[in-house]
Write a structure and sequence with these properties.
Layout lengths: L2 E5 L3 H13 L5 E5 L8 E4 L2 E6 L10 E3 L4 H13 L8 E2 L4 E2 L4 E2 L4 E2 L4 E2 L4 E2 L4 E2 L4 E2 L4 E2 L4 E2 L4 E2 L4 E2 L4 E2 L4 E2 L4 E2 L3 E3 L4 E2 L9 E4 L4 E2 L2
Parallel strand pairs: 1-2, 1-5, 2-4, 6-9, 7-10, 8-11, 9-12, 10-13, 11-14, 12-15, 13-16, 14-17, 15-18, 16-19, 17-20, 18-21, 19-22, 21-23
Antiparallel strand pairs: 3-4, 23-24
Length: about 210
């Protein structure tokens, strides 16, 4: 019996569930994981109830994907999954996404409906490209990164690990961005940001928040 484990059980996990069903109808079993002590034991999708697993004792060692937006929470969930013997599934690519030739795509993530990836792009592991994200040629995106809907990343950009781009964020071409950065909705990145400290950026052009 084929199955998959979705790490996360909030709104994004609901969307991931539907994308998985579109891309991989062969999965008969789909499990959700939320190990927080928040009382959540089930998730409702299309009028159906699905149980939420609260521990890491899996009878079936199905592969996993990560349905969480926050990069640092993603990283923690992946570490727990690997420690209990689970392996990542390949990155889910929705049938409506346009992914051209010559790209290298890591595992455990999602390329959502309406995304466009041109060519010679390197996408790390556990990366979420949410609805209608575009990525230009010769760009590298590190592990655990997340784009929210409508993000536009131009060509020849080097992006580190654990970055999150808010809805409608735009990144100019030929830039270098370090790790652990958060960019607000509708912000514009027009200069190099090489810091690896946790910083939130907002505005046009971006400036440090606070």
């Amino acid at each position: 019996m084929a199955g998959i484990i979705i790490l996360g059980a909030a709104g994004l996990a609901k969307e991931f569930f539907l994308y998985v069903k579109r891309s991989h109808p062969e999965f008969e079993k789909i499990y959700f994981v939320n190990d927080l002590d928040d009382g959540q034991t089930e998730i409702k999708i299309d009028g159906k109830i699905y149980p939420v697993v609260k521990n890491w004792n899996f009878e079936n060692k199905f592969p996993f994907i990560v349905a969480v937006g926050n990069p640092h929470i993603k990283e923690k969930l992946v570490q727990k999954s690997l420690l209990c013997g689970l392996n990542p599934f390949k990155t889910i690519i929705d049938p409506s996404a346009l992914v051209l030739s010559g790209n290298k795509i890591g595992v455990g993530g999602l390329i959502a409906p309406g995304c466009i990836l041109t060519t010679n792009i390197t996408l790390g592991n556990y990366v979420t490209l949410n609805l209608n994200t575009t990525v230009g040629h010769d760009t590298k995106i590190g592990d655990f990164c997340t784009t929210n809907p409508g993000v536009h990343i131009s060509g020849q950009i080097e992006i580190g690990n654990c970055n999150e781009f808010g809805t409608g964020c735009i990144v100019r071409d030929r830039l270098k961005i370090g790790s652990n950065q958060t960019f607000g909705a509708q912000s514009a990145v027009v200069k190099n940001i090489e810091s690896d400290e946790k910083i939130t950026w907002v505005g046009i052009p971006v400036r440090k928040l606070g």
